[in-house]
Amino acid sequence: TPGAGAGGPAGAAPATGGGVLRPGYVDPRLVVKPGSLPPPGPKSDIERYREHLAERIDAVNSGAAEEAAHEHRLHNWTWKDSKGREWGLGAGGVPIIAGHRLPTAIAPPIPRDRDRENAERERARRTAEIEAQDDATQRDRHLRERARATRARQDSIRNARKNDPKTP
Hints:
single chain, 168 residues, alpha+beta, 48% helix, elongated
């Protein structure tokens, strides 16, 4: 019957907001079917600015997410099998077999500051090279000075012999 609630006997409370909370008879005059939305109008300056800002923030966030994923991959060399169990070397070089972390590391720990260590190693190599070049320069300068002094002394001895009448 039209006035009764869905599934309820005639004369029972109607299925309305004040009655039993069940689906019931709905007056088709009260239901409005949504139509298509009108096309959006031209965007204001503030809307264009907000869209631009949102795009820039998304770009920065995606870059940060990629960097975080890269850092995770550097220190966590694991993969999952078809059953969802984890295998490989976890963070810090901890072996993971079938989802279980072994209590001891069977491999040396993965260096966390590899880039810094490489930079320090390169700086030490450059410093050693600069010092070696400086030592070679000082050694060459000393050798030239000694050769000049020896030549000057030999020249003075020759000149003294030349000017000395007693020398044959």
